[in-house]
Amino acid sequence: MSRPLPRGRHGLTREFVEQDQRERLLAAIAATLCERGYDDTTVSLIGGRARVSKSDFYRHFASKEDCFATAYEEAVERLRVRVLAVRDARLAWTERVCAGLAEALACLAEEPAWANLLLVEGLRAGPEVYGRFQVAFDSFLPCLREGAPRPKGGREAPPEFDEAVLGGVASLIGREVLAGRAEQLEQIFPEVAEFALSPYVGAAEARRIISAR
């Protein structure tokens, strides 16, 4: 989290000050959610952690829910940018999937509070935020679906098949975050990658691909 700006005359522009406050509030809600959970997180706690007054909080966000929704979108975008940056059409599908999973785990491990906001609190904050979770979830489906081989058995898989695989991946990662092991997420790459690849290429081939990395 960035340090609060100095008091009094500091020569900084209004735009800079407002952007700095906004970033500190978003970081503060992520950190507070880790400690208190969604229901016990309040505007006062967020503002106090960010060193931003309640009146300034309401200049940026209409409510705690609005602040959370903005932070959630920020968390999704951070993850999406990192995952999309490693997509390489020249790679085989299995390598693309492994690269994306490895980058996602690294990104989440670097920022445990944001991982908690995205994968734990996002499922507790009510129907509106769950809708955002679904939109975010759907935006990652092409990373799994594009170029995927047909599942074992040869039939073309319905869209629900890819959704179930990606949902399982999110559940595996969320379980670790909920258990307080977000910083060690990269250690579960073999388990997550095998889960993602096996329905398409078989468990033995998935393990071979992972061990060869």
Rg computed from alpha carbons, rounded to a whole number of angstroms? 20 Å
CATH hierarchy: architecture of the largest domain: Orthogonal Bundle
Mean pLDDT: 89
The termini sit apart by 35 Å
CATH topology of the largest domain: Tetracycline Repressor, domain 2
Task: Assign an overall shape.
Answer: elongated
Beta fraction: under 5%
The stretches of 5 or more residues where confidence is low (pLDDT under 50) are: none
* SSE ordering: HHHHHHHHHH
Structural class computed from helices and strand pairing? mainly alpha
Would you write up a description of this structure?
By secondary structure, this protein is an all-alpha fold. Helix content is 69%, strand content 0%. The protein folds into 2 domains: 14-61, Arc Repressor Mutant, subunit A (Orthogonal Bundle); 68-211, Tetracycline Repressor, domain 2. It contains 10 helices and no strands. α1 crosses α6 (112-119), α4 packs across α5 and α5 runs antiparallel to α9.
Features:
2 domains; Tetracycline Repressor, domain 2; 0% strand; 213 residues; 10 helices; Arc Repressor Mutant, subunit A; mainly alpha
Strands, helices and their partners?
Elements: H1 14-36, H2 43-50, H3 54-60, H4 64-85, H5 93-110, H6 112-119, H7 127-145, H8 159-178, H9 189-201, H10 203-211
Helix pairs in contact: 1-2, 1-4, 1-6, 4-5, 4-6, 4-7, 5-9, 6-8, 7-8, 8-9, 9-10
